[in-house]
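Appendix B. One record, verbatim.
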Amino acid sequence: MPKAIVIGSGFGGLGIAIRLQARGFKTVIVEKNAKVGGHAYQFIKDGYVFDMGPSLITAPDIIRSVFATAGERMEDYLDLIPLDPFYRVYFHDGTYLDYNGDESNMKTQMARYNQKDADEGYDRFMKKSKALYEAVILEGLGSSPFMTAKSMLDFTPRAIKLGAYRTSYGMAKTYFKDFRHRFMFSFHPLFIGGNPFRAPAVYQMIPYLEKEGGVWFTKGGMYSVIQALEKVFRKLGGEIKTNAEVRKILVENSHVTGVQTAHETLEADLVVSNADILHTYRDLIDPQWRKKWHNTKIDKTDVAMACFLMYIGTKKQFPKLLHHTLILSERYKPLIQDIFDKKILPDDFSMYLHAPTRTDPDMAPPGSESLYVLIPVANNLSGIDWESKKQPFADKILHFLEHDFGMEGLAEHLEVLELFTPNDFQKFRNSTFGSAWGVEPKLTQTAVFRPHNRSEDVAGLYFVGASTHPGAGVPGVLLTAETTEKVILEDFAEVA
C-alpha cells in the first residue's frame, strides 16, 4: 500500500486525498493551520459567520463526483440551495442587470439596452460558450493532463476552431455592443484571478456552465463543503495532521521520500502539494533538485491579482443586496490595467459583495447581516504598504457603500469589521506576492504552459490547486485533483 502525503487541505488537497485513499493509498494530510480548508476557511465572530474564500458553487456534479469516488452521496452531506439571480450587477450609471440562467429573462433585460444584443448576440454567444463547455467538461479536456507538447498539439486544431486562443473580452466584444453586456459576458476570469483582456476565451465556457448547472450556495456556508469532504476522508480511514506546517519536502536522488514538518519527519512514496506551487518549489525543495523550476523560472512566472477583503457584521439588514452583488467602476479596462499591469492602488474601485444571510439567515444573529466585500487589487509586486493603507482604504469603501450606494446606517450599526490584505494571504496562506489565485490564467500559462500536475524535477511529487491545470475556482481546483489522480494511478499502476 503506497504512502501518500498531501500538503494542504483546501478543496484540491481534500479532493486528491479522498481519491487516493479510496484507491488504496495510505494517505495523510498535513495542514499548517488549526483547521482544514486552506483558502476556503471560515471566520466566526460574535455570531457572524464568514466564508473567507469561495462563496458559490457552480458545476455541482464535479463536487458530486468526489463523493461518488468514496462511495458516498453528496446529498447525504450537503443541503444545496439554488440562487436566482446568480448575480446582480450594478453599473456606474445606476443601471443594473440580474444575471441568471433564464434565457427569456436575460433577453428581456438586455433588450432595455440593446435590442440586437438580445435578439442575436445572446444566442450566438451561448452557442459558442456551449461548444467550449462540451470540450472542457463533457469531453474531459479540463481533467486531462497536459504534460507534453504532443498533448497540446493534439488539442490545438480544436482550440483554433473554438476560438479558445482569443481573449475572453475579445470574444464577448464580437457578440455584444452594449458595455453592460460586454462586461456581463467577460468578467468571469476575474473570479479566478484572471484579466479578461488576456485570459484565453476557453473561460467563456463558464456562462454556459452556469446556465446549464446553475449557481448554488449551501446551508451553513461554503465551509460546510470542506467539513463534509473532511468527514468523508476520515470515514475512508485517512489521517489529518493540523498545526503541521511543512518546512521541507525531502528528496533523495531526485525522488521524493517524505516531508519535514515543524514537529516531525514523515516518510512517503509520493507527495502531493496543494500549497502555492511557487512557494512549494522555491521554499520547500532544495535548489539542487530544481533543474527546470529554478528560481529564475519562478521569478518569470506571472501570478494573478490579489484582493482586499472586508468581513462586515451589521445589526441592520440591507435588502438592496442580493446574495451576490457586483458594483462596478465607470472604468473597466483601465482599472484592470491599473491592477494587473501598473500595479497601483487607483482612486476608484469595483467590488463584489457576498451576503450569505440573504440565503441562510443563520449565518448572522437575528435581524443582522453578514457581509463579505472583495475588492480586486494588485499583488504585492506593487509595493503597496497595506499596513498603513488598509484602514483608510476600508473607511473609503464603507463611506461609498453608505453614502453613494445607499446602504444607510451601515456605520451606525456596524458590529464586526475584519480586514484581510494581500499581506495576510502571503503570511497565512503562503501565497506568492499575496495573490489569492496563484499563477495567472493567461494564454502562455494555460494547459501545457501551466505548471504541470506531475513535477518535471522530482519523481513522486505532484500538484493540485489553482496554479495547476486546469486552474482556479472550486470546479477548476477539484478538476486538478481528478487530473492529478489520473497521473498518479498511471505512475503507480504496478503497486497501487
